[in-house]
Amino acid sequence: MRFLASVAAGLLLFAAACTSDRVEFGTPTKAPESGFVSQPNTPAPTSANTVDEVPARLMESDTTHRPAWLKSRIDAILAERKRNPKIRILTYQYRDQTVYWESAPCCDQFSILYDTQGKVICNPDGGITGKGDGKCADFNKNKTNEKMVWQDPR
């Protein structure tokens, strides 16, 4: 019984202490006297774009001479469904010859490197490792004179 009396007395003291320094919470109903919610130098919100777009790298386009096999390859790509990312074909100088590189149609697939006759030389990149089939591992290091030949317009 004595124990319960001391607990009750403690609760009364605790309740009295809490109500003496009363704190209220609520939403202000009038504007601050300064006219500013935070600091006077807080900028006003804007809906304008505050980030300048970086222009895409423009590549020199080579549309002057497309071999017949390449025209057929482009037609075949256009007959397929649209890919994401878009298929691109670029030309380079590699191992003292002109080559055509076709981007991979999607995720973990190989890109294709063709010679001027349309024969597949290798798959220089892509695949699960991203390093291609290993038959021309030096391609990315030794390719030069990059020119855009074609990109899927869809």
TrEMBL record:
Keywords attached to this entry: Signal
Domain of life from the UniProt record: Bacteria
Residue ranges that the Swiss-Prot or TrEMBL entry lists as coiled coil: none
A Pfam family this chain is assigned to: DUF6970
Residue numbers spanned by region Disordered: 29-49
Keyword Ion transport: no
Name of the molecule in the record: DUF6970 domain-containing protein
Organism: Hymenobacter aranciens
